Amino acid sequence: DFNDPLFLHPSDTPEVNLVNEPLIGTKNYEVWSRAMMIALTTKNKLDFINGSCKKPEAHSPILHQWERCNAIVLSWIMNTVSKEIYNGIIYSTNAFTVWTDLRKIFN
């Protein structure tokens, strides 16, 4: 189902760069976050950063698909931040947590 946030299109790959200007800090956070929200909306992945698409229970049949989509969203975020910010989020495992932390730090 194309409307399911767990759907991955063949073009949804980790190396995709969704926005032109990387996040460098408070100077461009508002513009960067707006551009990312627009891009994630077009990819139907906004629910991963707004908390609507929560990680399923350990034995859920959709856990693996959720983890794949979450990893894709994490990679898209990491592709659009400065090297300094990248180094601070590389070990994160949840796109929602990374998005929330970036908002707290730079907004």
Condensed summary:
The chain has 107 residues and is mainly alpha-helical. 50% of the residues lie in helices and 0% in strands.
Secondary structure topology:
Elements (H helix, E strand, L loop, with lengths): L28 H14 L4 H4 L12 H16 L4 H7 L5 H12 L1
Describe the protein's architecture and organization:
Residues 9-57 form the Retrotransposon Copia-like N-terminal domain. This is UBN2_3 domain-containing protein. The protein is an all-alpha fold and 107 residues long. It has one domain (28-106). It has five helices and no strands. The chain has helices at residues 29-42, 47-50, 63-78, 83-89, 95-106. It is globular, with a radius of gyration of 13 Å. It starts with 28 loop residues before the first helix and ends with a helix. The model has no long low-confidence stretch (mean pLDDT 96).
Count of domain modules: 1
Shape: globular
The main pleated sheet reads as: none
What is the CA-atom radius of gyration, in angstroms? 13 Å
Pfam families: Retrotran_gag_3
Protein name: UBN2_3 domain-containing protein
Organism: Cephalotus follicularis (Albany pitcher plant)
Task: Record keyword descriptors for this entry.
Copia-like_N, mainly alpha, UBN2_3 domain-containing protein, 50% helix
